[in-house]
Write a structure and sequence with these properties.
The protein contains twelve helices and 24 strands. By secondary structure, it is α/β, with parallel strands linked by helices. The strands form six sheets. It has a four-stranded mixed sheet with strand order 22-23-1-24. The chain has a four-stranded mixed sheet with strand order 2-15-17-16, with helices on one face. A four-stranded mixed sheet has the order 4-5-3-14, with helices on one face.
């Protein structure tokens, strides 16, 4: 699908989808619980549908409604037949599932689409090997066999917090106590904090002993509960940047004290001289004269693509550093944004771990850019086009369905002119 986005002024109110990060975690916790949970304010992106499908295969009874989902949890993990779980393109689904499904103590196969199965899983591969368990990764599947044990785990903190979260979700269900030791540097700790908070909401306790050590007691049981998902700061960032560059928006139904790491978008915009008014449960953001600033991406990697757009429309030179993990997402997001923004006249360059943007260069338009089968690339390019001087056509624009199926409809609601070609 191609979408042509025209320069547009924006002024309105918007509610963004619920946090995908929290949705993954809470659905899993509800499915591992004994009893009935109702989870409110859900959005059925492809990633969330993948997690729902996997937990159904594990035995949870899940009924989807328009804005909420009812879940009858399984209580105890047990699989009577070998399972093949399709994780689609969701890295969170795959990495959260591997330790959990190991508790079935039988052969489990994980399938995927796109770049998912080429993304590194060496943390789990080494972990399984150390415990004498089976782990095999090929071009089209990952197969495991055997139950991870309660023990002391040591993980590098600069690869992906998803491995830590996967362990945290599974270890409380084992009979013994465990400890997770994280080797510094510890990046994306906010995602681990989000996991601990969600587990606590479902009655399971794990906690930091010190900055790099988490204690996880065994013999715990998740408890069913009613739950409401909060708004997603990673999705909010697209509209926040758009408003800061060109217009005014009030972004509603956000949890101001959220533990989401991507809440850092508020501090980043402030550092760029953004005009932000924090309200009770929303943000009002107005166009302002944006000035360049450097950005540490270690705690909020998903913001990387849209921050390159922010830098492009800011006065001066900005450097985004600690960005190397962008290269192993749905696309190489550093290369993707550099390639496409150069087509649009942006002065942008990169190293393995950083991106440098000289803002306010002479922008181009009336060109076609490519979404690289990556939802965050597509949305970032749409924001760039909205704020520019010339229309831009995005090829492969349908990939937003991975996380935000209604993105283009929501853009229209706030005044953006676009055409589905």
């Amino acid at each position: 699908m191609r979408v042509k986005v025209y320069p547009s002024g924006i002024s309105s109110y918007i509610t963004v989808p619920p946090s995908k990060s929290i949705c993954h975690r809470a659905i899993i916790c509800a499915c591992l619980s004994e009893g009935f949970s109702r989870l409110h304010n859900i959005s059925y992106s492809k990633d969330i549908v993948a997690t729902i499908g996997g937990m159904r295969a594990l035995g949870a009874k899940i009924i989807e409604h328009d804005n909420y989902v009812d879940i009858e949890g399984i209580g105890k993990i047990k699989a009577n037949t070998p399972l093949a779980i399709d994780c689609n393109e969701s890295g969170s689904t795959l990495r959260f599932f591997i330790p959990i499904f190991s508790l079935c103590n039988q052969k489990i196969t994980f399938l995927g689409q796109g770049r998912l199965l080429s993304r590194p899983q060496s943390v789990y591969e080494e972990m399984f090997a150390k415990q004498g368990l089976f782990f095999e990764q090929s071009d089209d599947r990952i197969t495991i066999d055997g139950t991870l044990k309660a023990c002391k785990y040591e993980l590098c903190g600069d690869i992906s917090s998803q491995f830590i979260t996967g362990l945290l979700l599974a270890l409380p269900l084992l009979s013994g106590d465990s400890v997770i030791k994280i080797k510094p540097p510890f990046e994306s700790r906010s995602y681990v904090d989000l996991t601990l908070q969600t587990m606590a909401d479902f009655g399971v306790d794990a906690y930091f002993i010190d900055d790099y050590t988490i204690a996880v007691a065994g013999n715990q049981q998740y408890k069913a509960t009613n739950y409401k998902f909060e708004g997603d700061y990673s999705q909010m960032a697209f509209f926040a940047v758009m408003a800061a560059i060109k217009g005014e928006l009030t972004i509603e139904d956000m949890r101001i004290d959220s533990k989401q790491g991507d809440k850092e978008i508020i501090d980043i915009l402030t550092n760029f001289n953004g005009d932000i008014n924090v309200l009770k449960d929303s943000y009002n953001i107005k166009q302002s004269e944006l000035n360049a600033s450097d950005i540490d991406l270690s705690n909020c990697p998903d913001l990387g693509p849209i921050l390159t757009v922010l830098c492009a429309y800011s006065r001066g030179k900005s450097t985004i550093y600690n960005a190397s993990r962008l290269r192993i997402k749905e696309s190489d997001r550093i290369d993707a944004m550099e390639t496409e923004l150069k087509k649009l006249g942006v002065n942008i360059s990169s190293t393995q771990d950083s991106i440098t943007v000289c803002g306010r260069s002479k922008m181009s338009g009336e060109v076609t850019v490519f979404a690289h089968n990556d939802h965050r690339i597509a949305m970032s390019l749409a924001v760039f086009a909205t704020c520019g001087e010339y229309p831009v056509t995005i090829d492969g624009a349908e990939c937003v369905e991975k996380s935000y199926p209604n993105f283009y409809e929501d853009m229209k609601k706030i005044g953006v002119r676009l055409e589905i070609l």
